[in-house]
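TASK: fixed-backbone design
INPUT:
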């Protein structure tokens, strides 16, 4: 097939052989398409971190039959069609039920001993790595090891501690003070909806792994911005893909891209191609895309991600409405925490942040107008006893928003 490259594990001149390293992966239970992993190296008294990312672009060529096909898929959200077929995933994923070799793009850097931050920008390597099921962890297990409620061998613990210190240093630099982990909506075959809160260990580990991804995305964005200017795919403050290397206000006013999920998003694969080009990879000596082709990728990705996100939000909101109905129909009172997000001449919009003990997120609006709070982050609390499933309106919540409930007015919730 013309879209396939030679998939051999012989070490080519442009490949760095890191098969001697232990590669650790941390993913949800049952995950088979792992995009990322890491290694920790001790050398001459220094600590070196290698962040590995699966490389589908070793197999798939730009503008090939398969690349054109996978661009129509976007598998970040649950219940969406996987971007890559199982045959491709098995050959690319950094997770396997047996010891195996994989191609990866690796960001490697040395940590400062005092700050645990990189001493220099990462070196970009095109690598061969070895994956093994014994080094594969779930978020919960890895988090429980770091929090002392689970055990592993001493060397693995030391390496997890290094990653923990690095991620913590990144969070402190970015002044991250809060990480919301939403409860998952679960539905039984009988249509019963429940909410399942993630464990503290899972939440903590997701936060650590998330920081690694943010760091890698920022570093790759800087490289592409300096080398290509606007001829690369970046992520805007509004959460859209753009051909504009402007600072992203949500990411410390630095340029940002998507690079770390190449098995789930074609935009990340496109970034891989561009990174290989600017790094002088011998298989990518000419630009992989022209400006019009990049624009086409961006338009397609923005349209597709918005459609899937809107459908996911609507499905989530319907499920949460049903959850509230199940409780209130049994005579139970449901506690809802919310913030006012927008007030105009037609309606008041709020965002529900918590239902009882579960952190959630869904938007709600009422035609009644209120004064926008002086503190936009002020959290209000309402107690509701019913919901209209046909319209999604919650009468008690409307009263709280309007301030008509004089016995229990909305109060700030800490």
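OUTPUT:
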């Amino acid at each position: 097939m013309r879209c396939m490259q030679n998939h051999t594990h012989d070490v080519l001149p442009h490949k760095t052989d890191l098969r001697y390293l232990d590669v650790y992966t941390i993913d949800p239970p049952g995950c088979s398409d792992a995009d990322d992993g890491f290694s920790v190296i001790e050398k001459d008294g220094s600590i070196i971190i290698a962040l590995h990312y699966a490389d589908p672009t070793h197999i798939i060529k730009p503008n090939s039959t398969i690349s054109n096909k996978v661009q129509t898929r976007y598998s970040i959200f649950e219940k969406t069609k996987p971007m890559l077929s199982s045959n491709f995933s098995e050959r690319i994923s950094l997770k396997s039920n047996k010891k195996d070799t994989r191609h990866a793009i690796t960001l490697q850097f040395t940590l400062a001993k005092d700050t645990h931050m990189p001493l220099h920008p990462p070196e970009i390597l095109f690598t061969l790595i070895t994956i093994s099921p014994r080094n594969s962890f779930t978020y919960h297990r890895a988090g429980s090891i770091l929090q002392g409620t689970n055990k592993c061998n001493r060397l693995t613990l030391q390496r997890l501690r290094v990653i923990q210190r690095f991620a913590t240093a990144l969070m402190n630099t970015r002044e991250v003070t809060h990480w919301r982990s939403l409860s998952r909506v679960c539905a039984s075959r009988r249509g019963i909806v429940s909410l399942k809160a993630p464990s503290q260990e899972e939440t903590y580990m997701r936060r650590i792994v998330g920081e690694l991804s943010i760091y890698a995305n920022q570093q790759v964005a800087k490289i592409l911005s300096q080398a290509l200017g606007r001829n690369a795919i970046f992520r805007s403050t509004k959460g859209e893909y753009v051909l504009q290397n402007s600072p992203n206000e949500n990411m410390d006013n630095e340029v940002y891209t998507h690079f770390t999920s190449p098995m789930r998003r074609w935009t990340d694969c496109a970034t891989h191609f561009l990174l290989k080009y600017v790094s002088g990879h011998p298989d990518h000596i000419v630009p992989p895309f022209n400006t019009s082709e990049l624009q086409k990728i961006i338009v397609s990705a923005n349209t597709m991600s918005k459609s899937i996100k809107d459908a996911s939000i609507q499905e989530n909101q319907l499920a949460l409405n049903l959850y509230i109905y199940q409780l209130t129909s049994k005579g139970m009172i449901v506690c809802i925490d919310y913030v006012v997000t927008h007030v105009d001449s037609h309606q008041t919009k709020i965002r529900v942040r918590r239902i009882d003990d579960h952190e959630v997120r869904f938007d709600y609006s009422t035609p009644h107008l209120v004064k926008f709070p002086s503190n936009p982050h002020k959290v209000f609390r309402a107690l509701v006893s019913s919901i209209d499933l046909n319209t999604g309106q919650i009468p008690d919540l409307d009263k709280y928003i309007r301030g008509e409930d004089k016995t229990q007015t909305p109060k700030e919730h800490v």
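COMMENT: Helices lie at 65-70, 86-92, 139-146, 154-174, 200-228, 266-278, 291-328, 395-402.
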